């Protein structure tokens, strides 16, 4: 069976101030063409179809168009909700849409109920694990501690239990939306840390033939059977070096996997340039970036006059301007942002306690801080779902 694995469409999302709906529509057209030209047997979409729980009307219309075009091909599609989606909204009408070959899996309680698709070698069972917010699904999976690894492990127990009841030789595919250990993150993913831990080990998914992951925006291989498709478009300058693509996966009769990447259309390349303003305006080596979307980091010791306007004369698609003056390491004017770069909310809070008290938090206080951050994230998720 040949699968096309994609994820993280984020329909309705902009790139800085640029409306990406046209580029997203071009991607949908590319996906449909790929399905047709590569004789794809099934499409899997591993979450974050939309960028937010209540997407703009134009994004909903594009999603509706995508569903109709996929259904018209007669190729089954299995998709799950991600942490940006409203599972309830995305899953509306799922029972009726099933009849058209579009299988929406958004309910945590249904993780052990697969979509079963046959090919010449038997059945392939597709299990949809939508994004499982630990605080919201803890009771459903009867776990003592609400964490990503615990709820995903419980969900996979249901998958393996159902798979054990099926005919010998039944192959299996799991769709999941999660941060798996070994994956490389970018700046455009929403933090899903719980209990100070965001990542879960790939071993959680042992026992199935292929795991189609969503959430991280870079296409990457965790193991030969566990892969991220990544987002089809770049949504942050941290993705400037990404090769945006989908996975074309051949699942053989014995469950072995062969995968190749299919590139996605690039609306405009990204470039991150750095230096003094005068150097950036004069450097002939930067000519290749003049038609790119640009993030410029200025290292001038004193902020120059009208930097954006002057940059736009050479780089008309400059979208982001960052000031990072080059200073000696001990210079007291080293920016606050630089000192915070790469640090989690938990680490920043612990550093603050150490700064005002002279000593960092003890184990009990660290746990209180972690619980507070987890509660805030869980509350934000509940309010997002309820909208």
Automatic annotation (TrEMBL):
* Coiled-coil annotated spans: none
Instruction: Kindly state which keywords UniProt assigns to this record, in alphabetical order.
Output: DNA recombination, DNA replication, Endonuclease, Exonuclease, Hydrolase, Nuclease
- Gene Ontology molecular function terms on file: 3'-5' exonuclease activity; endonuclease activity
Q: Which residues form the Nuclease SbcCD subunit D C-terminal domain?
A: 267-355
Q: Which residues form the Calcineurin-like phosphoesterase domain?
A: 1-218
Q: Which GO terms describe its biological process?
A: DNA recombination; DNA replication
What the entry lists under Pfam families is as follows: Metallophos, SbcD_C
Entry keyword Nuclease:
yes
Q: Which InterPro entries match?
A: Calcineurin-like_PHP, DNA_Repair-Maintenance_Comp, Metallo-depent_PP-like, Mre11_N, SbcD, SbcD_C
Q: Which family does it belong to?
A: Belongs to the SbcD family.
Purpose: SbcCD cleaves DNA hairpin structures. These structures can inhibit DNA replication and are intermediates in certain DNA recombination reactions. The complex acts as a 3'->5' double strand exonuclease that can open hairpins. It also has a 5' single-strand endonuclease activity.
Q: How does it assemble?
A: Heterodimer of SbcC and SbcD.
- Put simply, this protein is called Nuclease SbcCD subunit D
